[in-house]
Design brief:
3 domains, 378 residues, eight-stranded mixed β-sheet, FAD/NAD(P)-binding domain, D-Amino Acid Oxidase, Chain A, domain 2, 10 helices, globular, alpha+beta
Amino acid sequence: MDQPSTNGSIWGRVPIDPQPTLESDIRAKILVIGAGGSGLAAVDEALSLGEKDIVCIDAGRIASGAAGKNGGLLLAGLADPYHTVSKFIGRERARQAYDMTEREIDRMLVETHDCVRRTGSLRIETTPPLLDDCRAHMQALIDDGFHVDRYEGPEGTGLLLPNDAVFHPVEHCKQKVAQVLQGGAMLFEHTKAREIESGRVVTSGGTIHCEHIIAAVDGKLDLLFPELKEEITPYRLQMAATEQAPLRFRRPIYWNDGYNYLQQLEDGSFAVGGGRDEHGAAEITHCDDTTEPVQDHIRGLLSELGIDQEITHRWAAVVSYTKNGLPIAREVRHKVIALGAYCGTGNVMGRILGRAAVHASLRRDFSTIDLFTKDPSS
């Protein structure tokens, strides 16, 4: 039985000024579909390259999807642990990608410094196989020159990754919206893309004629592009937040091979997510309603950590996963690039690929996209 959300995402306490809805046909050189982290990064990059004729649309309110409903973790690397990625795509390529994500966190600290905190992160594990995996994870990072330490503390045993960070996802989007509007981009919300083809997008409010299209929608990528359905699985990720408590956790933690994650916010509230692995097929969906079984599981995670504060917020977001763990950033139709399927770790990687999509569109430079997305086994 579905359990309704309580107050929505805890991040929603920061309001973003409403933007207009498209009500007529317009023209633009670049159209970005999706005003989340990836989409806003794409708009920002296009502006930095001197392009002013840019339109960005969102089907709902800005940051109402996964961009404003995630766990607030900024983690370097791709979705899988570094040593796993290194074996799959090659050591040098993995090193370049990891370095780029660390530098992206640095960039976010500079651009929106008041909503990003470099805390480091903890990967904590309890079972012998996953502790062995931690050791392999650590050694691979050390061998390639990255900072990591073995960790033993009140949270448990595992790894400390000191260059990771946390952020307020809605505040970050709010600041990026202000920046791109000031730069001259046009932004429309409650404007749903209904038909996408080279040169034009038919929306709920009018047709946008454009030269380049970047669709950065992650969890709904397979709905916009049926040709990607065989590659993408949409998963619902559920979270909850509690009332305030004395500060216990200086850093965010993730455990159970990343299926569970928690951070304590600066005001003492806990934000925790997990349960997707325990509830399997029920979480393969485009529906973002919370459900009682998963919310009960999350309550159990809090209890295991000795957290007995009352839950004040419950929410869910839909994101896309791929079978190989690599994201999708690809020209799926002529001058139409699809971005997404970050496998639950798009806060950093999505911004990199949003900017990379602009270079691919305007300069036919696919080097960064290939670095993150090219499957060596295909």
